[in-house]
Design goal:
- α1 packs antiparallel against α8.
- By secondary structure, the chain is an alpha/beta fold.
- The strands form 3 sheets. It has a 7-stranded mixed β-sheet with strand order 2-8-7-6-5-3-4, sandwiched between helices.
- The longest helix has 24 residues.
- The radius of gyration is 21 Å and the shape is globular.
- The chain is built from 11 helices and 13 strands.
- It has 2 domains: 116 residues, Aspartate Aminotransferase, domain 1; 223 residues, Type I PLP-dependent aspartate aminotransferase-like (Major domain) (Aspartate Aminotransferase, domain 2), CATH 3.40.640.10.
- InterPro entries: Aminotransferase_I/II_large, CobD, PyrdxlP-dep_Trfase, PyrdxlP-dep_Trfase_major, PyrdxlP-dep_Trfase_small.
- Its cofactor is pyridoxal 5'-phosphate.
- Decarboxylates L-threonine-O-3-phosphate to yield (R)-1-amino-2-propanol O-2-phosphate, the precursor for the linkage between the nucleotide loop and the corrin ring in cobalamin.
- One of its GO terms (molecular function) is pyridoxal phosphate binding.
- This is threonine-phosphate decarboxylase.
């Protein structure tokens, strides 16, 4: 299977990138200044334990500092967990972020798949989860809200999953990197329940919310001290740069930026969802900063049905979901950008779809 990601602006020339799910308001100015000011410290090694940052994150989330660990992006911690746990069997939802599978493959773990089906709205169903857990996986990866579908799982349902996993001795890793874009982030996060469920490890990142993709900064939270210590032992030292640590500290103070940008993104998500639906595309109920949709007319595989290529010709990059397990070339994901950018996307899609209709009428 080929592992691909959004944001690949290096392989093709684009003017608008809708493929990477980043905050369209860009890096906060205070974070930019903090990163620039930290360059003077680049002649010395960074703090390998990120102590100032983990203390700030602990205060931010209301957990003890020893329950926080920082990494070179959330992906660094995903691979670190695979190495620390070395599970023989794991369960992963599909479709989902490819890094889970890639990390598990690196330790020769046998992966089973929990399929999220279109007929269920790509939602997790308890019956199927219980059936899959009967295969005795040692590790379960869940993304909440899920990527690429944007479907979230309420906290009460997540707590049920955590309880079932604890009872069966399964480590539950919950990727909450997009949770902050939900209308009510606190209604889904398991962070307040970490003490109750030490089998849970929550992944977070600065990447999406603060548009810090190039700085690489993620973190994990877990109440299992033994696992946290093991994770520290298997990871490379100095994996988080001084620049990233300084940027992260500054970002935690940007509460106004977070509030204003997430409110604006929610408004744009509703607008963009409506416009895509009016174009005859099948739009699923994304609750994050991206929208997952399908082009039913593209199922015949003809060139006119491939929106990815048609938009790329117009220097607009969207995320084809063809390489996601369980999906095909008719599924796409677009991030929610600023209104003027979203208007351009809709305008070009209208032209493409109108052209398709014209060809069909000629036939």
């Amino acid at each position: 299977m080929e592992y691909q990601h959004g944001g690949d602006i290096y392989s093709q020339e684009v003017d608008l990138d809708f493929s990477a799910n980043l905050n369209p308001f860009g890096l906060p100015e205070a974070v930019r200044r903090a990163a620039a000011d930290s360059l003077g410290n680049c002649t010395v090694y960074p703090d390998s334990s990120s102590r100032k940052l983990t203390a700030a994150l602990a205060a931010y989330h209301g957990v003890p500092q020893e329950q926080v660990i920082c990494g070179n992006g959330a992906a660094d911690l995903i691979f670190g967990l695979a190495l620390a746990l070395k599970p023989e069997r794991a369960l992963v939802t599909a479709p989902a972020f490819s890094e889970y599978e890639q990390a598990l493959a690196s330790v020769d773990c046998r992966v089973s798949w929990l399929d999220l089906r279109e007929k269920d709205g790509f939602r997790l169903t308890p019956r199927e989860l219980l059936e899959k857990l009967s295969g005795e996986p040692q590790l379960l990866f869940l993304c909440n809200p899920n990527n690429p579908t944007g479907v979230s799982i309420p906290r009460e349902d997540m707590e049920w999953v955590a309880g079932v996993c604890r009872k069966q001795g399964v480590r539950l890793v919950v990727d909450e990197c997009f949770c902050d874009f939900l209308d009510a982030p606190g209604a889904c996060s398991l962070i307040p329940l970490l003490e109750k469920y030490p089998n849970v490890f929550v992944l977070k990142a600065f990447t999406k919310l603060y548009a810090m993709a190039g700085l690489r900064l993620g973190y994990g939270l877990c109440a299992d001290g033994e696992l946290m210590e093991r994770l520290k032992q298997v990871r490379q030292p100095w994996s988080v740069s001084s620049v990233a640590q300084a940027a992260g500290l500054a970002a935690l103070g940007e509460t106004g930026y977070v509030r204003a940008s997430t409110e604006a993104i929610a408004r744009e998500r509703r607008w963009l969802t409506g416009e895509l639906t009016r174009l005859g595309l099948t739009v699923y109920g994304s609750q994050a900063n991206y929208i997952f949709f399908r082009d039913p007319a593209g199922a015949d595989g003809s060139a006119r049905g491939r929106l990815y290529e048609a938009l790329l010709e117009r220097r607009i990059l969207i995320r084809s979901c063809a390489n996601y397990r369980g999906l095909d070339h008719t599924y796409y994901r677009v991030c929610v950008r600023l209104h003027e950018d979203n208007e351009i996307l809709i305008r070009e899609l209208k032209r493409i779809l109108t052209g398709r209709d014209h060809l069909e009428r000629q036939e």
